[in-house]
Design brief:
The structure is a homodimer of 319-residue chains. With 319 residues, the first copy, chain A, is an alpha/beta fold. In chain A, 42% of the residues lie in helices and 17% in strands.
């Protein structure tokens, strides 16, 4: 497969992105091609500095760069030769099979929706990440920032997206999907959660196990936690805050270490027609490498095809 | 002053509530009267078992009890002789100066709003708690569960309530009030935060310092974090989750220990006409004692009077 990587994306690009690409070489097969999008001179220079043969990669010269603070749509329009713009152009044209960037996540979202587009039936895409469980394994939480104003029907769809991801990528059999809430009783929470609960209860697209609280996040009580992009983002940023607090104070152990975002690569953008991964702005080389491997997993699992099928069925049943 | 305490409120009542009341005796002055509301026989029995003179308290026999899972309004109506119902009746009649309970928080909210009522001009009351800061001291976060569907104008009022509480109770000079958000830039967040930001910017009722992220919660970047009751509840439940995770794993230190909810007593219900404190359901004796001391602080600081003044001015300026 051909994996596109935006070399200029992320706070520590291009150093960490190139290092991550080099790390990924060890795990990719000879059939995989890593397509590096960015300023060709910079890329070649970094590869030479690292003593790595430039021919191991497919380099596409895209000298522009969308910065973190730029307005997504405007930037995509005005910078046709930025890594993100070019990446989605190639993805839509089938020249790459998956695309990943730790750059401007708004531009990644807008680029994906404009180029490969949402899967028919999906109202809003979302992004997800995994959280370690105390007794081993991971659960999934979504949305973690893409849709801060998700309505109840959109939360319901996040349940479908999360369930399929947990099944295909996390290899969970019949994933348990819950709604992240402030109490476990039926009818708890704000109006948005109350309405979403009602839609999720007794649905036939995923196995709904009710409301769960933050204390259940690490307890293997559910495989998928559904929430809106505002709450989900607050939740993962609080985990990061704690992770840093305890690291700084030398209070960690093997389980707490698993809260390190680097281990998880990036956040898949779910609900669009091709594998797209959003990296963390502060991605390390390890995070970039894991992000690359995640795109491969998503492509090989054919999750996009499965999502198209289930949303076809969903749209059909709904009407 | 006369402080009312619901003896039957909390998961470990009446044992912990009685123990907490006994602990408080050491810190109260001879002028303070602790009014214990609950089943008189049970109270006297517990006090005798603890070897404490029953005459040190004013005991009001209220044998009924509103359980955690009961519907607040229905319970208040059907159980006139429950501690919570009676407590608010006494508070409204001026027979006690403050009231605290670790029982059904919905009944506490409904009871407060029905009896002593909201301060004129306050659209919705809210509850608050303090969070430890790495470099010492505390900040305030509100709402932490009372109003899960707070609209932007209500969030704005939470800013006023929090600012006055920080000034009068936490003794902060010109408290820095921020909006808890997913990014620090202007215009970040969901529609609710965007609109609240607009209202808070350049206001003259409190010192607004903009958006803050979860990573700023322990960094002394603001004295008051404003959010809605859904997000605030998720945030503090996540802190509790982490606190328990690290305690269980013996990973704590002096700072992390300060995340122990017991130290903070209870959550003041802000925006009503008298000091009302909601205790945590799992309150220990220490938490109960601290909750009692908190009601005293609120009463003595005359915070309710100050809030009535500022909301009078607010209603006046708005029109």
């Amino acid at each position: 497969m051909r994996i596109g990587l935006d070399i200029m994306g992320g706070d520590f690009a291009p150093v960490n992105t190139i290092k991550g690409a080099i790390l990924a070489l060890d795990e990719l097969t000879p059939k995989d091609v890593l397509v590096l999008l960015g300023d060709e001179n910079v890329i070649r220079q970094e590869l030479r500095a690292a003593g790595v043969c430039e021919d191991l990669f497919f380099i596409v010269d895209e000298p522009e760069c969308i910065r973190m603070e730029e307005k997504p749509l405007k930037a995509l329009q005005e910078k046709p030769r930025a890594g993100i713009t070019a990446g989605f152009r190639m993805l839509a044209a089938g020249e790459i099979d998956a695309f990943a960037s730790a750059g401007n996540s708004g531009a990644m979202l807008a680029g994906a929706v404009r180029s490969v587009q949402c899967i028919p039936g999906v109202v809003r895409p979302c992004s997800a990440t995994t959280l370690p469980q105390e007794e081993g394994g991971d659960c999934l939480i979504l949305d973690i920032g893409t849709m801060p104003d998700a309505k109840p029907d959109v939360l319901f769809q996040f349940g479908i997206l999360g369930s399929i991801y947990a099944q295909y990528i996390l290899k969970k059999d019949k994933p348990r999907v819950c709604l992240l809430n402030v109490g476990t009783e039926d009818g708890k929470g704000n109006l948005q959660c109350q309405a979403a609960f009602h839609l999720m209860k007794n649905n036939r697209f995923f196995h709904f196990v009710g409301n769960m609280e933050p204390r259940d996040l690490f307890k293997n009580k559910a495989d998928v936690f559904v929430t809106d992009g505002f709450v989900g983002n607050i939740v993962i940023k609080e985990i990061e805050t704690f992770y840093r607090l305890i690291q700084k104070r030398n209070l960690s152990d093997a389980f707490m270490d698993r809260m390190n975002y680097e281990l998880y690569g990036g956040s898949p953008l779910l609900g669009v027609n091709a594998p797209v991964i959003l990296g963390h702005g502060i991605s390390s080389a390890l995070a970039i490498k894991n992000m690359i491997m995640q795109t491969k997993k998503m492509h090989e699992s054919r999750i996009s095809e499965r999502l198209r099928e289930i949303f076809y069925e969903y749209a059909d049943k709904k009407e």
